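Narrative summary of target 7.
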Amino acid sequence: MQINEVIRKYRKQKKLTQEEMASKLGVTAPAVNKWESGASTPDISLLAPIARLLGITLDELLSFNETLSDLEVSNIIQELHGMIGREKLDVIYQKMVDKVREYPNAENLKLSLASMLFTQTLILGASERAKYDDWLQECLENLLKSDSESIKMRAADSLYAFFISRERYEDAEGCLEYYSDENPDKKRKLASIYRGTKKFDEAYKALEETLFSSYQNMSVLIYELYMVAVETENFEKAKILIEKESAFAELFEMGLYNQLAGKVQLAVDMKDGKQTLELLDKMLSSSSSLMDYAKSSLFEHMTFGEFNPAVLDMVISNQIKQYCEDDKYQFMRETAGWEDFKNKWCK
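Modeled conformation, tokenized:
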């Protein structure tokens, strides 16, 4: 924005008329009108009073560049990266400060510079890096007010990392308010705070809950990939995916029932009656393992709902009824070995 646009924008935000602004500055209303139209510019002696009246900095008042393109930001960052190793960090830091002053509204630049400086401070001693901390924190906290959700979340990530590296755990926890409760990163970051403050049981629980949730999400994702493979008749890929899903269930100690469930589905989709009967028999025989994860040391700090055997019996009973009656499983009922399966399970 040009200076006339800046004056007009912030005057309106302050709900001032041109006449009111002129009166407060000791100039005429036509003078203010000329500033805003671009016909003239304010006298240099009026710049500071105008900035104070509008509630902005001189940098913002005089900024002719509101934003920078990604390419322009990239060029600035490359220039500064080229100085690393050739110049002292103080010199690079001052260059960063100057760039932010030159482009105070370029949030993408400010975020990139703050991230770059933070990375460089990680190799410094506590006393040496302290001189950069105020500027870093101020930059990132300002970006938390951004209208861009992407900038805001990246700033929250960077500020959290900054506070964790400085062992300022209470401040780090404050950054988590920018994360939704559904965001798995929130619980993982909270666990890091628990670990840093020696609350190890809480850290275990938060991480185990994240691990369990991640397993569930990954299992669903693999199954959806499997469904695409089946619908495109790519059974080779479908088989690979089910093997991965089964191995995944074994790795996370989900029990034999869950390890076999996908394999049963594959046998059904391929209409392999013999394989379906064999796998079904194994799966139904291992139904008591359905909630083995509740006994796993992987999740020992988690609390699971009380296991109700009657509910499990009902689920298994409904499954067996489908196998015995649903047209989808007719191919299985026409397979040698069906009578033995039926006599064992379809009572």
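The mean pLDDT is 91.
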